Structures are given as C-alpha cells and as structure tokens.
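User: Some background: our group keeps a shared notebook of sequences we're curious about, and every so often someone picks one and asks for a predicted structure to add to the entry. Today it's my turn. The entry only has the sequence so far, pasted here. Could you supply the structure so I can complete it?
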Amino acid sequence: MFESFRRSTSEHLDRPRYHEDFRRHYGSGIRSLRKLERGQNFKERGFPSWEAFAVGEWRTAISLIEEKREIYSAQFRKAAELGILERRIRVVEFPVTPYVQWELFVLRLRVELGDNIRVLDSRAIAEIEAESLVPEVVILGDEVMYEVAYDDDGNAAGANRIVDRAAIEDTSASFDVLYQRSEPFGEFFAREIAPLEPPVVNDQVAAR
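Assistant: Of course. Here's the predicted structure to add to the notebook entry:
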C-alpha cells in the first residue's frame, strides 16, 4: 500500500507556491479531494483557538473554534458548487496527544457542517506501517497530489508536488481502502475524545 507514492518523484513547493498551486488545481474541474492526516503534533500559529490551547487555556480554545464556522461553511459551499467530493482520514495514535485531542474538536465542527471525516486507529494499520508511516497527503482528483511538509518543530513548510498519474491512481486506491476501514467520526469522538479531561500542555508546545 502506497508503494507508488514512496517511489514517485516530486517538486518541493514553499507555502505560498503550494497554496497557489492548490487553488489553481482545486478550481480546474476536479471532482474529488482526499486528505490523509497522520502526524500527531503540529503547530497552527495564527489560529486563535490553537494559540489558546498552546498556553493551556482549554475552555477558551474550545470556545474559539466557533469563529471558524462561517469560514468552513463557505469552503463547503464552494466545494458543492464545484461538484467536489471531499473526504478526510485522521489517523490517531494512543494515548491521544494533546494536539490531536484539540484538533478533533475542530474537526467536530467541520463534520457538523458537512465534512466527510473518518478516524483510523493507528493500531489497525500497524502491519501497513511496519516499514514506514502512511503519508501525509492531499490528492486533487487525478491531476496532482501533495505530500504536506512540516519542519522538525511541527510548523507547516509547504508541500512536495507529485503529478505522476499512476502514482496518484495507486495512492487514491490506497486511501479508499483505508477510508472504508476507518470509523465514523461521531462514534470515535463520543467514545474516545469526549470523556477525556482537558490535556496537560507541555511548555514546549508554544515555543517559538
């Protein structure tokens, strides 16, 4: 699984070039977007909810997520207008990291607004990941896919752009298999996330 992805060649794009390329392809007539998110610790500076989470203000962090409602609603309206089916898999390790605990509250809002998100317990893919983790990837139709890149500190650092059609087809097929294996977001959230106490945030989370 994901063998073609790992063998494919890519071109690195910094964040502005990645966002520009993404927008261009997103509006080009594609019919699907697949996103596989694997990392367990990221930094989302500039997102007020994450900033509050990073300094241990859990209640404030959760309440600030609501500020994204109209932004997310607009995104989903645009996807519907363009005829794009968007699906996302969120891989979760146990014990759940503070970042993932926070992020799943963000994803809960997205699901409420119509996003198609499923959750995959990393233990269920241990055999698949015996040699390497499944990729952090965004696939736009059959045109292009991006290996989303982060620096060693968890900050977004652009993406590696892949346009090999065979690799895109193979990676899409692998995504679809995992999507079917994954659990509906609401069931996972109610069982594994809702009962958790507010996370203890390490002092290094917000370090710059």
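Suggested note for the entry: The longest strand covers residues 85-92. Residues 165-181 form the longest helix (17 residues).
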